[in-house]
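Researcher: Next entry: Chemotaxis protein MotA (Pseudomonas kuykendallii).
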Amino acid sequence: MAKIIGIIVVFASVLGGYVLSHGKIGALIQPFEVMIIGGAALGAFLQANPGSTFMHVFKKSLKMFGSRFNHAYYLEILKLLYEILNKSRREGMMAIEADVEDPAASPIFSKYPGILKDAGMTAYICDYLRIMSSGNMAPHELEGLFDMELASIKEELEHPAHAVNRVADGLPGFGIVAAVLGIVVTMALLGEVAQAELGTHVGAALVGTFLGILAAYGFFGPLSVSLEHDAKEELNVYEAIKATLVSSASGMPPTLAVEFGRKVLFPAHRPSFTELEQAMRGS
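Model: Predicted structure:
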């Protein structure tokens, strides 16, 4: 909701100030300027990134209007880890083999469809539970493996934000390109059209610069920052899973292991000790 309000405030402030200064909205409607700026930005984006990045960024951008990383989601992650570790402690690590081999059919994972829907995070949990069930890796070795994978996950999660940020950096330049082309058209008309028509063409050229700068600092720049925040929150969940599983591998009981994970979570939506305890009792 805050992001939608932010977009509305940007439009209302810019266009409201323009109209109150006796500007005409019609003068800002320049579809060919939009085509130059938008097309050039899209082409540069496609050149700079792998083919799959466009759809990845598009899907992530749509999710910016409602974050899944909230209090309830954090609590679900911790409850899932507690249940699976509690089962392994009571019945042995081999008892969870069916759960980690086919999470979709697991009675435990099926209780948490929001987590199960994230194939990457589900695979992350199951892979390390498989390693732990083998019993051949010391806790410090397991932690080292976590750290290596988290480094690559961090790079992958941050890529959409970096890609959008580069587009934001280039948009003012593409706005200048559109403006220069508009001036070229205007200069070619000197002596052929009336002064009023020349003024219209100059105004259209300046709209290109305006649109490029507005898009960069009013929309794409904030979007890249929002994607960066989302990546940090997702990485934080992976780190909480790591803390929980490493603690369990070190011999901590499930109740204490998930407490290690809880402490790693960002404070903004972190469940309290009492809430987690009540959730575990409910499980």
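Model: Note for the record: The mean pLDDT is 89.
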